[in-house]
Design brief:
The complex is a heterotrimer of chains A (249), B (306) and C (347). Chain A has nine helices and ten strands. Chain A has 249 residues and is of the alpha/beta class. Chain A folds into two domains: 161 residues, P-loop containing nucleotide triphosphate hydrolases (Rossmann fold), CATH 3.40.50; 78 residues, no CATH class. Chain A starts with 5 loop residues before the first strand and ends with a helix. With 347 residues, chain C is an all-alpha fold. In chain C, the strands form two sheets. Chain C has a two-stranded antiparallel ribbon. In chain C, strands 3-4 form a two-stranded antiparallel sheet. In chain C, strand 1 and strand 2 form a beta hairpin. The chains are: A alpha/beta (249), B mainly alpha (306), C mainly alpha (347). At the B-C interface, helix 4, helix 9 and helix 11 of B face helix 6, helix 11 and helix 13 of C. Chain B: This is Amino acid/amide ABC transporter membrane protein 1, HAAT family.
Chain lengths: 249, 306, 347
């Protein structure tokens, strides 16, 4: 089996008496979609934030391609190829689609302190951006301000921005939230293609999508991973059914 | 420098710190509960001072003037809240800054229109004039001593109000979570007007008391407003305790800096140079204090949020 | 949030082949810039020297406002202390001229630093001083956000104000006169028309420079920092460095305006450092239309015109101006340019 690209080892984080993340270990291998599921309040977003560097863990470590990320902040991790989307869409609302994606491409380039040449005429960045917009299925919407996009389009914009970061891993926090079933299916197909660009750690509540798309699923309850396995293994896992799927049914 | 002078200056620092606390308490409550930055708080201080001067001159009674200052500032605060401030809660900080800056122009120029530019002077009430001899043989102004007492009494009252009463519970709930307090069935509009008027009354009272020591004139609230901002940055937004500690720190640093720094430089400089260097540094002392707090604790000494 | 001068659509529409006609905003900008020039020249032709001076004052205040606009309109930072850089620029001009006219050096150690009456040297020095002060104040203030940032920039501005008042060497409270207006090679700066033309050219250069910055990589990141700092981090750009750089450039531009203002009045005093001036610079931007390139010019022009017209009617014009400002903030947030050029606001 190929070496994992992202490794999370023994990660723990407490807020006062609350253990939000309790000794979590999981990994992400090339080409796979690894879904992270669990009831609300299980600590999924807190875990993602420790991986992206927005929150510092109390213990444990995160490694990207074998390199420890300790001491590297969110911007630094993004530049190393950690591309994330947010639970609540987070884009520059007054910018057009094109400007948002060019911004991401600029971030990936690592060069921001240039004061003279117009960035939108920079063919290197613009070409990349157009490419990513096409892959995300937003072609023709380049000049639309992000604030005027429909909800599903804004999720696609987040994916286009993630693509522009030349990602080594995708961390997608509920990309399908709030989408209709048609939109969710289309986005699922898109994720299915993206996994070959970089593996995806997917936090998602849409169980149909999770079981259809994922190669592996980890179940998080009260900050602990109670099971990791293929969709079939997770379906058959008695503890998972008890603590999680049973409650949904 | 004699010990007596030093103690006298310490008392002066305490007195100016407590008056700053009256200003800062209202500002920090309005920040904490309504999320609003109110530059016109200094105008309410001025309104209190002018109301006191006007009523005291008409009736001959300082005490009626003092009561009038509190009533007038509270009324002005309530009117301004209902007419203008209420529309600003949902706006961004820039709009709040500009609208309350406009209020300053209106208040200041309006007051100048009514009273002219010359300062008014208030007389200390006869019962509090003169000085008392403190333990250790220190002569100190009875009125200033009374201000210290009044400031302490208001501070205690405010802590009791916030800590022990229904209104206080609502205010604290409002700081924590605005939606929750609405869900509790509290009339949030009335609560906001009440908090704003309370802050205004404290500012008006401070204006009347300080106006009696110094003078009453247009623009008198502005330097105090900025000092109150420094107090809040040091103490932390929304914290009454922070406002008290910050106000005392600023009052004492400012007063003692002005006395001590020139004499400190006098030790190794010629007197005229020492006086000017010392005075220039003393004018910056509280801002340097603020910068230090920012480096160590960007959220203020008692602040939860940065 | 505030409306923005969007990076032009032509750049963001890859398919747009034909050069677009100038937008309405561009036409309004051109009208404002050329209108000020025409006003100054026309006033000179009619012998209204006072009006030429007034136009010069508008141009200088617009430069100061343009400096503030870079951080406020583009970066979203509400600095309430920009009078500090304006005043420092003014004192730089005053102090350099003072030493030049007295033939005394400012200091001799660690190197000899003499006064000068040459505007280019004064401008450069003023911009360096403004940039240094903005770097120090910005580094501390940018540790915080929101209301704290407003109060802290206000407080540091006030610190410099009180320092100027209590430091007696350069006039203290009384201020410092500049007996002869500083010179510029090839021009007679004492001629109001020459000085106006010079200041107008500087204003256009500053606005052009800001337009260039806004379209650059740096400008894209700066405008993103206003809208969504979390997102900027997530694409690998740290907002702190971007905002501090903008703050430093902003301080330098506002200090340049201060140096010009000192030369206009041939006098510099602590009033240039007062917090009222910081407030007025903010007012220019909201009157003009926050975030728009020419907002400072529109706002400063409107402010000076009102001061002149209302001031002629009533001594208490600021009372009425306060009411007007309140109405603009509460009901007409697009400002003059928003009104003329149409809203470009989203959400």
């Amino acid at each position: 089996m190929a070496d994992p690209i992202l490794e999370i080892r023994g990660l723990s984080k407490s807020f006062g008496a609350l253990k939000a993340t309790d000794d979590v270990t999981l990994d992400l291998r090339p080409g796979e979609i690894h879904a992270l599921i669990g009831p609300n309040g299980a600590g999924k977003s807190t875990l993602i934030k420790q991986v992206t560097g927005e929150i510092a863990p109390d213990a444990g470590e995160v490694r990207l391609s074998g390199r420890s990320l300790a001491g590297i902040d969110a911007a630094g991790r993004a530049r190393l190829g950690m591309a994330r989307s947010f639970q609540v869409s987070s884009v520059a609302a007054e910018f057009t689609v094109m400007q948002n994606v060019v911004l991401a491409a600029q971030g990936a380039s690592g060069v921001t302190f240039r004061f003279f040449r117009p960035v939108m005429r920079d063919e290197g960045l613009a070409g990349r951006a157009r490419d990513c917009i096409a892959q995300a299925g937003l072609s023709g919407r380049e000049a639309v301000p992000a604030a005027e996009l429909a909800h599903g389009e804004r999720r696609k914009l987040e994916i286009a921005m993630a693509l522009a970061l030349e990602p080594r891993v995708f961390l997608l926090d509920e990309p399908m939230a709030g989408m209709g079933s048609e939109g969710a299916t289309a986005l699922g197909d898109l994720l299915d293609r993206l996994r070959h660009r970089a593996p995806i750690l997917l936090v998602e509540h849409d169980m149909d999508a999770v079981f259809r798309l994922s190669d592996r699923i980890s179940v998080l309850v009260y900050g602990r991973v109670v099971a990791t396995g293929t969709p079939d293994e997770i379906r058959g896992n008695a503890e998972v059914q008890r603590v999680y799927l049973g409650e949904e049914a | 420098m004699s010990t007596i002078l030093l103690i006298e200056q310490l008392l002066n620092g305490l007195q100016s710190g407590l008056m700053l606390f009256l200003m800062a308490a209202g500002l920090t409550l309005v920040f904490g509960v309504m999320g609003l930055i109110n530059l016109a708080h200094g105008s309410l201080y001025m309104v209190g001072a002018f109301a006191c001067a006007g009523v005291a001159a008409a009736t001959g009674s300082f005490w009626l003037g003092l009561a009038a200052s509190i009533a007038a500032a509270a009324a002005a605060g309530a009117i301004v809240e209902v007419a203008v401030i209420r529309r600003l809660y949902a706006r961004d900080h820039l709009d709040q800054v500009l609208a309350t800056f406009a209020l300053i122009l209106i208040f200041s120029e309006g007051t100048r229109w009514l009273y002219g530019s010359f300062p008014l002077y208030l007389n200390v009430p006869p019962s509090l004039s003169g000085s008392v001899t403190l333990p250790g043989g220190i002569q100190y102004s009875l009125f200033r001593l009374a201000i210290i007492g009044a400031g302490l009494a208001v501070a205690v009252g405010l802590f009791l109000l916030i800590g022990k009463t229904r209104i206080g519970v609502q205010v604290r709930a409002g700081e924590a979570d605005r939606e929750m307090i609405a869900a509790l069935g509290v009339d949030i509009r009335r609560l906001y007007t009440l908090v704003f008027a309370l802050g205004a009354a404290l500012a008006g009272m401070a204006g009347a008391l300080v106006g009696t020591i110094q003078s009453v004139q247009v623009g008198m609230g502005e330097p105090v407003l900025i000092l109150a901002f420094v107090v809040i940055v040091i103490g932390g937004i929304g914290s009454i305790k922070g406002a008290l500690v910050g106000a005392l720190l600023v009052g004492l640093t400012d007063t003692m800096g002005r006395v001590l720094l020139p004499s400190l430089f006098d030790l190794f400089m010629e007197t005229s140079a020492a006086t000017s260097v010392g005075a220039a540094l003393a004018s910056m002392a509280i801002y340097i204090l603020m910068a230090l707090v920012l480096v160590v604790r960007p959220g203020g000494l008692f602040g939860a949020r940065a | 949030m505030s409306p923005v001068e969007q990076i032009p659509a032509a750049g963001s529409e890859p398919m747009a082949a034909a050069p677009a006609r100038p937008s309405r905003a561009t036409l309004v900008n051109a009208a404002l810039g050329l209108g000020l020039l025409a006003f100054g020249l026309g006033a000179w032709a009619m012998g209204e020297v006072f009006m030429v001076t007034l136009a010069t004052k508008v141009a200088i205040l617009a430069i100061a406002g343009a400096g503030l606009n870079l951080v406020l309109g583009y970066g979203g930072l509400v600095s309430f202390g920009h009078a500090a850089y304006f005043g420092l620029g003014g004192y730089t001009a005053g102090i350099l001229a003072h030493h030049a006219l007295n033939y005394t050096p400012l200091f001799e150690w660690p190197f000899l630093f003499e006064g000068t009456t040459s505007m280019p040297v004064i401008w450069l020095t003023a911009m360096v001083i403004g940039a240094l002060a903005a770097a120090a104040i910005g580094a501390l203030s940018l540790r915080t956000t929101g209301v704290y940032f407003i109060m802290i920039t206000l407080a540091f501005g006030q610190m410099i104000f009180y320092f100027a008042i209590s430091w007696p060497a350069y006039g203290g409270e009384d201020g410092l006169p500049i007996y002869v207006r500083n010179g510029f090679p090839g021009l007679d700066t004492l001629d109001p028309l020459h000085f106006f033309g010079l200041v107008w050219a500087v204003l256009m250069a500053v606005l052009g420079g800001i337009a260039m910055l806004a379209r650059s990589r740096f400008g894209l990141a700066l405008q993103a920092a206003r809208q969504n700092r979390q997102r900027l981090m997530a694409v690998g750009i740290r907002p702190g460095g971007v905002l501090l750089t903008a703050f430093v450039i902003s301080g330098a531009i506002t200090a340049l305006a201060g140096a010009l203002y000192a030369d206009l009045n041939r006098f510099v005093s602590p009033s240039m450092l007062s917090w009222h001036l910081s407030g007025e610079l903010l007012v220019f931007l909201i009157l003009g239309g926050t975030g728009r390139l020419f907002a400072p010019l529109a706002g400063a022009g409107l402010y000076i015109a009102l001061e002149h017209l209302l001031g002629g009617v009533s001594d208490h014009w600021q009372f009425f101006f306060g009411l007007l400002l309140l109405a603009v903030v509460l009901f007409a947030r697009g400002g003059v340019i928003g009104f003329l050029a149409g809203g470009k606001r989203h959400g």
